[in-house]
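Re: that chain you flagged

S.,

Sorry for the slow reply, it's been a week of failed gels. I finally had a moment to sit down with the sequence you sent. For the record, here it is as I used it:
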Amino acid sequence: MPAAVRFGVNYTPSQGWFHHWLDFDLDAVRADLDSIAALGLDHLRVFPLWPYFQPNRTLIRPRAVEQLLALVDAAGERGLDVQVDALQGHLSSFDFLPAWTRSWHRRNLFTDPDVRDGLATYLRTLAAALADRPHFLGMTLGNEVNQFSAGPHPDPDPATEDQIDAWLEHLLAACERGAPGRLHLHAEYDATWYQDDMPFTPGQAARRGALTAVHSWVFNGTAQRHGRASVPAEHHAAYLVELSKAWAEDPRRPVWLQEVGAPAPLVPPEHAAAFTAATIANALDCPDLWGITWWCSHDVSRDLADFPELEYGLGLLTNDRRPKDTARALAEAAAADRHTPRPRTTALVVPADPAARSACAPGGPVFDAFFSLTADGARPTTVLDTRSRDAGHLAARGITDVVTPDQVLPTPPGGTRS
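Prediction finished late last night. Pasting the structure tokens below so you have them in one place:
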């Protein structure tokens, strides 16, 4: 764990969005980084686009790698550490997959040995190029790559849990070979925690890699169901941080809130700063939090077409680098003195069947019970199943009271709660 919770931002270039790798302008990048550093943040998450960096299975473009190094060096000059997401993958509703995996060359991203080995070479190459940079944190395999493995993706690459686990192990090992001892991990969107047929599992998220990463978006049904200023909406990020610990073998495994934002219109712009401040304050109340990385640095330019409407306004800064109220809320949180979170002594038991993830989704009994306890001030944590947790593990987490959703939620008249 770092001495203090880290604060950073997912870097969205103000010019050209992530297509800036095609017309890389280091002066524009430096101006973006200046506007980020002025907020008092300490790290970035950056996104090479996979088909731009590895357009052929045996070609990793040297010029693209040089541009990535230049960006990392420029960030370091401004006191910003950098986590590199290599497999893009999927960003802001668009997929970015190289031609050697699609159409006439269709290969499964997770089970084809040529794709796996090509990816391993790519990850190892980037990691090795970055290994001597002091401001390089490590590699994240990619941005929410679990979305390629099941529905609702329109053209998924199906795989089993065992195949995904082998894929993760192989690619994280490639990162480690390239840059030993760095912060290498994988990060998935919340279907990992909520979707029963998702082959990327909570156990993998809480076991593979240096720490657990969670991505919190209240447009997953939470804000629609409960409203922007509700306990569930303002505590959703904290819920995912605590839920992720249910599957951690290490009771003190760090958790990175790697992606979180204030999506309009569910969170209107005039309320975004209050939502930001509340989300951060509630996440900081979670023990073992490694860091908070806001999505995202700069707005998407209105000159670019076909983005979902909410994507255009998610930036902390406008497209011409002016800070919004959300930027000031994040900056104030980063600068504030922080207390050590009190232990969460009440454990809410997740259903024993590890496939029953839908119970943890918005509207599920675990979700509803967690927020019922939260509203009552009980500050619950979560465990997977008391039958698989010995007393020593529970004691290490400071748990003194264990409850089930049925003990928390009222039973409907005339029957049991489904």
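What I noticed first: The mean pLDDT is 93.

Talk soon,
D.
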